[in-house]
C-alpha cells in the first residue's frame, strides 16, 4: 500500500535566496507548497527602544538603518513626523531637495529589487547593469550627503547641507545613464521567455487580500489599487509635480516587475521636474569676505578678536559643506529652538554658540509639545509611517515605525501556497523584503 | 461629517476622550467597546475603513517623569485608513497593568494578526481570540517584554555564552 506524507522543508535564515535574514518553514506535497510558516526577527536591533533613549536629532542614524537601500526616505519620514509634532514648515528649497533625494533613493531601491530578483532567476547581466545604475545614483547621494548608506542627511527643520554646485548637470547625466539601463533591462527581461514564464501568474494575490493585510506600495498597486501616499495625501511639494501612479491588474510577480519598472521612470520624471522648479539657491561665486579655516575662527573668537568675524565665511570639513551661513537660510527653517545655527555663528559669536549648546546638550535639546502624531510617507515598499508620542521633554516617549515590509511578509503565505517550491525564489525576490525595516 | 464626529455620535457613551492634535483625529474608547466600534468603522458605508494601517501600544509608566498620570498604564493604538474616502482615524484603548488584555481584531482585518503578535511580544498585552499569539521578533525563551518602560534598554539575555 502506498502512503503519502507531506514533507517539511526549512529555508533560511542563512540561505542566499532569503536575503540573509528570514526563515520559512514549508510543508510540501511533492513539489507543491501546502503551507508556509514565516519566521522573522533575525535582524531585530531594537530600533524603537533605542529611539526612546536618545534625543530627537539623535534618532536619525537609527533611521538610516531601517530600509538600508533607500535610507533617505526614512530620514525624511522621521523628520516630517517630528516637524508635524512641532508644527513647523521648512523652506521651499529644502522641500525640493528632500523630494529629489527621496526619488533618487526610490529608484535605487527598485533597481536593487528588480536586479536581485532577475539575478535569482539566472539573469546575471541584468543584475550587473542595474547595480551599475544604482552606483551612479549612489554617487549623487554621496556627493550631497558625504556617505552612501548611513547618510543621516535630513535634519529636523531642513536638510544638513545645500546641493553642491554643478549637481544639476551631474544629475541629468546620471538620469540619462539610468534610462539607458532601464531600456536595456527591459529588452533583456520583458520579452524573455524564461523570465516571463517564471514570473507570470506566480505569487498571485488578490486586491481584497492585499487590502485586508494592510499592504501598500508597489505590491498593492500591482493588484490594481492605485494607492500612493504621494497622491493620496501629498506632502512636501508632490502636489506641484506631474507624475502617474502605475498600476497592474493581476497582482502576480510579473505585474510587480512592471509596476516597479514604470515607477522608476516616474521617479526620474519627478527629479527632472524638481530641477526645473527648484528655487535658486546661493552660489559660491557671490562670496564676499574671506574664507578662514574653522579652527582659526574658533581661536580668534575665544581670544575676543571678533572684529569683522561676522562677514567671514568658515572653511569646513567636506561633509559639512553647504551648511554655512550663506546656505543656511535656504535649507533650514527659521526656528532657533529647533535648528542648529550656521557654523560661523557657532564658532564666531556667543549667541550662536549658546544656541548650538542649547540644542545638543543633554537636558536641553528640541522640545516638542506633549502630544502624538502619525505621519506617512511613500517609502520604497509602501507607506512608511512614523508614530511619535512626546511628553514635552527632549526625548521621544515612543517612536513607532509602520514598516511597509511587515504586512507584506504577513501575507507571504497567501502568495506562496499552491505554487511550486521553485517559485519561492521569484516570489520572494519580487516582494522586496528589506530586513532592516521588517525587524527594526 | 468627520469620521471622529460620526463615531462620537454613534458611541457617545463608550468614548472616554477625543482630541485632534495637528489634524490627527483620535478617540480613546472603553476596552469593552473595541469590537463593536471597530466593526462599525469597517462596515459603515460612510466610513469604510478598509485598512488597519498600524497597530501598536504605548507604555505610560512614569509618563513625563511621573507628572502626567494616565488612567491606565498601557494604551493600544490603532491607525485606520479608508482607501475610498482617504481619511484616517486613530483609536486608542487603555489597558490595565494587572490584566493586560484586549479583544483581537484578527477576524476583521487580517493585518491585525502579526501586529498583535508584535504588541504581545514587546508589551505583554494579550489579545483575546487571537489564533496564534506567540512572539514574533524575539525568541520564545526571551524573558520579559522589551518595550515596557521598566525593561532596561541595556539589559542582556544571551542565549549562549556566560550568563550575567
Describe the structure.
The complex is a heterodimer of chains A (440) and B (164). With 440 residues, chain A is α+β, with helices and mostly antiparallel strands. Chain A has helices at 47-51, 60-64, 71-86, 92-120, 124-145, 167-189, 193-199, 207-212, 217-221, 229-232, 253-277, 294-302, 325-331, 343-348, 350-360, 405-410, 412-416, 424-430, 435-439; strands at residues 7-11, 23-29, 32-39, 154-155, 158-159, 291-293, 313-315, 371-378, 383-390, 396-402. In chain A, α3 packs antiparallel against α4. Chain A is elongated, with a radius of gyration of 24 Å. With 164 residues, chain B is an alpha/beta fold. Helix content of chain B is 18%, strand content 28%. Chain B has 3 helices and 7 strands. Chain B has a 5-stranded mixed β-sheet with strand order 1-2-5-4-3. The longest helix of chain B is centred in the last third of the chain and has 12 residues, at 112-123. Classes of the chains: A alpha+beta (440), B alpha/beta (164). At the A-B interface, α1, α8, β8, β9 and β10 of A face β3 and α3 of B.
Helix and strand string of chain B, N-terminal first? HEEHEEEEHE
CATH superfamily of chain B: NADH:ubiquinone oxidoreductase Nqo5 subunit
SSE-based structural type of chain B: alpha/beta
Mean pLDDT of chain B: 86
Output the strand order for the largest sheet of chain B.
1-2-5-4-3
- Roughly what percent helix of chain A? 40-55%
Number of helices of chain B: 3
Q: What is the name of the CATH class of chain B?
A: Alpha Beta
What count of domains describes the coordinates of chain B? 1
How far apart the termini of chain A lie comes to 51 Å
The largest sheet of chain B is: 5 strands, mixed
Rough outline of chain B: globular
Taking the alpha carbons of the first and last residues of chain B, their distance comes to 58 Å
SSE sequence of chain A, one letter per element: EEEHHHHHEEHHHHHHEHEHHHEEEHHHH
Assembly context of the chains: heterodimer
* Tally of domains of chain A: 2
Low-confidence runs of chain B (pLDDT<50, min 5 residues)? Answer: none
Amino acid at each position: 500500500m502506498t502512503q503519502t506524507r507531506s514533507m517539511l522543508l526549512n529555508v533560511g535564515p542563512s540561505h542566499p535566496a532569503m536575503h540573509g535574514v528570514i526563515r520559512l518553514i514549508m510543508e510540501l506535497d511533492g513539489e507543491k507548497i501546502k503551507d508556509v510558516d514565516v519566521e522573522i526577527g533575525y535582524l531585530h536591533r531594537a530600533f524603537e527602544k533605542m529611539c526612546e533613549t536618545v534625543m530627537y536629532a539623535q534618532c536619525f542614524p537609527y533611521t538610516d538603518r531601517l530600509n538600508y537601500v533607500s535610507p533617505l526616505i526614512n530620514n525624511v519620514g522621521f523628520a516630517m513626523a517630528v516637524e508635524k509634532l512641532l508644527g513647523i514648515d521648512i523652506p521651499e528649497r529644502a522641500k525640493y531637495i528632500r523630494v529629489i533625494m527621496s526619488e533618487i533613493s526610490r529608484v535605487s531601491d527598485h533597481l536593487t529589487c528588480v536586479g536581485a530578483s532577475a539575478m535569482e532567476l539566472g539573469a546575471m547581466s541584468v543584475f550587473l547593469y542595474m547595480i551599475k545604475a544604482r552606483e551612479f545614483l549612489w554617487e549623487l547621494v554621496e556627493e550631497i550627503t558625504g556617505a552612501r548608506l548611513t547618510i543621516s542627511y535630513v535634519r529636523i527643520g531642513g536638510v544638513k547641507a545645500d546641493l553642491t554646485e554643478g549637481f544639476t548637470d551631474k544629475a541629468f547625466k546620471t538620469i540619462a545613464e539610468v534610462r539607458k539601463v532601464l531600456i536595456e533591462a527591459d529588452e533583456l527581461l520583458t520579452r524573455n521567455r524564461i523570465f516571463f514564464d517564471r514570473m507570470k501568474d506566480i505569487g498571485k494575490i488578490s486586491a481584497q487580500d492585499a487590502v485586508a493585510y494592510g499592504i501598500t506600495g508597489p505590491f498593492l498597486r500591482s493588484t490594481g489599487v492605485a494607492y500612493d501616499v504621494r497622491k493620496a495625501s501629498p506632502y512636501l511639494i508632490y502636489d506641484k509635480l506631474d507624475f502617474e501612479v502605475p498600476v497592474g491588474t493581476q497582482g502576480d510577480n510579473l505585474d510587480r516587475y512592471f509596476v516597479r519598472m514604470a515607477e522608476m521612470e516616474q521617479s526620474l520624471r519627478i527629479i527632472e521636474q524638481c530641477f526645473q522648479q527648484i528655487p535658486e539657491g546661493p552660489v559660491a561665486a557671490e562670496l564676499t569676505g574671506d574664507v578662514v579655516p574653522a579652527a582659526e575662527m574658533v581661536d580668534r573668537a575665544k581670544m575676543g578678536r571678533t572684529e569683522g568675524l561676522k562677514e567671514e565665511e568658515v572653511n569646513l570639513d567636506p561633509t559639512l559643506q553647504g551648511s554655512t551661513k550663506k546656505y543656511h537660510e535656504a535649507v533650514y527653517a527659521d526656528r532657533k529652538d529647533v535648528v542648529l545655527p550656521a557654523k560661523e555663528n557657532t564658532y564666531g559669536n556667543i549667541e550662536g554658540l549658546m544656541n548650538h549648546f542649547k540644542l545638543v546638550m543633554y537636558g536641553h535639546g528640541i522640545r516638542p509639545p506633549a502630544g502624538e502624531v502619525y505621519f506617512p510617507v511613500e517609502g520604497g515598499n509602501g507607506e512608511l509611517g512614523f508614530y511619535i508620542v512626546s511628553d514635552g521633554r527632549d526625548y521621544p516617549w515612543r517612536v513607532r515605525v509602520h514598516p511597509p515590509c511587515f504586512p507584506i511578509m504577513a501575507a507571504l503565505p497567501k502568495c506562496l501556497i499552491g505554487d511550486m517550491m521553485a517559485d519561492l525564489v521569484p516570489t520572494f525576490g519580487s516582494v522586496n523584503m528589506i530586513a532592516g525595516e521588517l525587524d527594526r | 461629517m468627520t469620521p471622529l464626529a460620526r463615531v462620537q455620535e454613534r458611541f457617545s457613551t463608550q468614548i472616554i476622550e477625543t482630541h485632534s492634535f495637528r489634524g490627527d483625529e483620535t478617540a480613546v474608547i472603553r476596552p469593552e467597546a473595541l469590537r463593536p466600534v471597530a466593526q462599525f468603522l469597517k462596515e459603515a458605508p460612510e466610513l469604510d475603513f478598509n485598512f488597519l494601517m498600524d497597530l501598536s501600544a504605548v507604555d505610560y509608566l512614569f509618563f513625563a517623569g511621573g507628572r502626567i498620570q494616565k488612567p491606565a498604564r498601557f494604551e493600544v493604538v490603532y491607525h485606520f485608513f479608508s482607501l475610498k474616502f482617504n481619511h484616517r482615524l486613530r483609536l486608542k484603548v487603555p489597558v490595565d497593568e494587572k490584566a493586560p488584555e484586549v479583544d483581537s481584531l484578527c477576524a476583521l482585518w487580517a493585518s491585525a494578526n502579526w501586529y498583535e503578535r508584535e504588541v504581545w511580544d514587546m508589551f505583554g498585552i494579550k489579545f483575546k481570540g487571537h489564533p496564534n499569539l506567540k512572539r514574533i521578533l524575539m525568541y520564545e525563551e526571551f524573558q520579559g517584554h522589551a518595550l515596557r518602560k521598566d525593561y532596561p534598554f541595556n539589559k542582556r539575555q544571551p542565549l549562549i555564552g556566560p550568563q550575567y
